[in-house]
Amino acid sequence: MEDAPDVLLTDLVPFVTPDVSLDELDPFNTPASVRKGLVREWVESLAFTVIFVIIFTNYIAQATQVPTESMKPTILVGDHFFLDKLVFPANFPVALREYLPQRSVRRGDIIAFRSPTDGNIPFVKRVIGAPGDRIEVRNKNVIVNGKRLDEPYKIHVDPQVYSEDPWTPEELKVRDNFGPVAVPEGKFFVMGDNRDNSNDSRYWGFVDGTEVIGKPLFVYWSYESDPYVPGDKTLEEWVESYASVAMHFFSRTRWFRMGTMIQ
After folding, report:
1. Range of the domain at 121
2. Which of 73, 89, 178, 197 has the fewest Cβ atoms within 10 angstroms?
3. Alpha-carbon gap, residue 226 to 230, rounded angstroms
4. Does residue 88 form part of some domain?
């Protein structure tokens, strides 16, 4: 016979039967989960994605490119880059602009802004003159407030310097010799880094600060392509263009420019 456990009666706890019968208990039923239809789930997912993309591209960042050589060599034709659009006034309704913080724009910054000739097309140029600056171009040299501006980023593709003689075409006069002009309050004087091939403030005037939509950040993809040619493309030309990119993606991609900061 096994040894009896060393437990005293005084160590035991009496069990008291609860004064509740089983028929007095209420059953608890877990509600069955309602599964959404596949079509509804797809529509909700698509709507959320569209709303997110619209908000992100209009107010935070946007993928874009420069189709011309006006900013060469800083930005090449075929450079695809992200545009920082956070807290720039032109991205918000006019009624909200005075209540929102605004990003500062300084001389030397590269900015994107609504075209002064066609508001639907964004331009990308470098700020040469800030409010209060006095700008002058003499023999292709930019003079700001009486001092020649040091510009390691600019290039000249045409060695010819045109004078201000009466027989010189006006567009060539202002290209090489311009001003002086004073930059008004709230506006900027901008120029392309490719000085001999840039449609900028020398031709259409100042950029209003409320029209600035962002600053370029970095190149995420660069494809060696031809400059933009004005005019509408036919469907066949569009198909040929995309087919060419697909066929030459690896051979014409400038891999060395991917990740390049734009400044």
Report:
1. 58-222
2. 73
3. 12
4. yes
